[in-house]
Fold this sequence. Notes:
alpha+beta, 39% helix, disordered C terminus, 5 strands, single chain, five-stranded antiparallel β-sheet, 6 helices
Amino acid sequence: MRAMSIPRVRLDWSLRVTRLIIACVAASLVTTGLTVIPPWWHERGSGAQITQIFRGHHGWWSARDEVFAMRWSNLQLMQETLGSPIDAGELPAWAEPPPPPYPQSDFYRVATLAVGWPFPTRTFRWVAPSHEHNFPIAAELDDADTSIVYAAEDARTHVRAGGPTQRGCGAVSALMWRFSPASSWGREHCWCADCVISCAVSASSLSRECDYSAGNSGSTTSTSR
């Protein structure tokens, strides 16, 4: 008689479903927690680094700071335009400046706070068109460790600069909303899409692992006479 390994395969499928559920719940909790909590717990940044970037005919002062699960980018437009277009200096997709034209101002600034880990799931952007706006400060002077926490505070309470000018998604879910219609509620909560993506990645990994396990179970089926 031939000994069938069907019960063992069914057990592997049961384990697969259990692991899938656990992975989805864990990914949801971690992604949500690392989106909501970081703006509350940091008291200082690590100190911003100031560089220059160039996009087309325009140059920008760029100040960037980073702590766990939060990233800060502060851009200030340079007054002089370039004769020939240049694309130099690296920026993450969520920190790229808007396309021209720009207002005639000596202190045009575009600052962005990205929250989430391991990749940003939520962004907050401040656009300051003139020197009358106190926040963000000039990027060429933004070398301290306070702007990132001030941005997190204003994103929560709106008491420092009246709140962000724009709210957005992380790099992954932003692409989803860009190519599909989204309501105002959807754009406000689009970071949830990154949570779903985390679940899908975890589920895919576990699925491959369990498929391999089930395949090995089937290949070791023994026979007896």
